[in-house]
Predict the structure.
Amino acid sequence: MADDLSQLQRDYEQQGYFVIRDYFDADEISSLRAVVLKFHQLWQQDNAKFYQEEAFNSSLITGSQYLASPDRVKLFNFISSKKVMKIVDTVIANNPAFMNTQLFFNPVNPKQKDFWHRDCQYDHDVEGQKLAIQETQVLHLRVPLFDELGMELVPGTHKRWDNEEEFNVREEEKGRLSSDDLSTGKKINLAAGDLLVFSADMIHRGLYGMDRLALDILVFDSAGDFVDYVDDDCLPDKVMLAEIIDPRLFLNIMKLKAVG
Ligand SMILES: O=C(O)CCC(=O)C(=O)O
């Protein structure tokens, strides 16, 4: 396993992603799916207009708005399970911290197209994005709850800047659209039970279609300045903490928040 983990570490370093097929068993996925579907149904009712018109994801799944403590503890224990932590520790060696969770589904409007982006482009101008890909590390761990078309990624772009085609498409310059195909894109089909790990700042897009419902766990390197992105309500309270088997991810973000 140590060799396998070193290979995954190298894949991440070089390509910005890796996928592990059949990482979770059917029981693990069905208990996770039951909790997530509860959240999703309540969220859809509460956000009916947004859902009908434009949504393709929700976030704050571990928060208290839609799920009660026992279900939240189930989510926290999945996120910090041995299997997940082994992978997190492989990619982020020093004090990985929990950031958030997101749930990705198909937009209701069939005309809504999947689009290329780097997550950092929503917070930074072009110069800031160039710095972000050199300096920071935000990891997405995608857990598909049903078989799906998956993601399309541009390998290596966690470390390198866009070529001209990529930039024009992603930023919708020179008549290009962010939903245009990229010649450098690599499609990764995913099945329930697989785990896809990728850098949030690489060029990527989700592929709409099938029955997709994917839970993304977002984790960052404590050296990065992401504390303000973390909602206190999405963290476990003291009573829940006592029920979490390996709460390091949550303790690390709580420590960062405490020092401000
Ligand atoms: O699956 C999607 O629709 C987009 C996924 C994405 O952009 C992300 O996980 O950061």
Q: What stands out?
A: The CA atoms of residues 168 and 174 lie 6 Å apart.
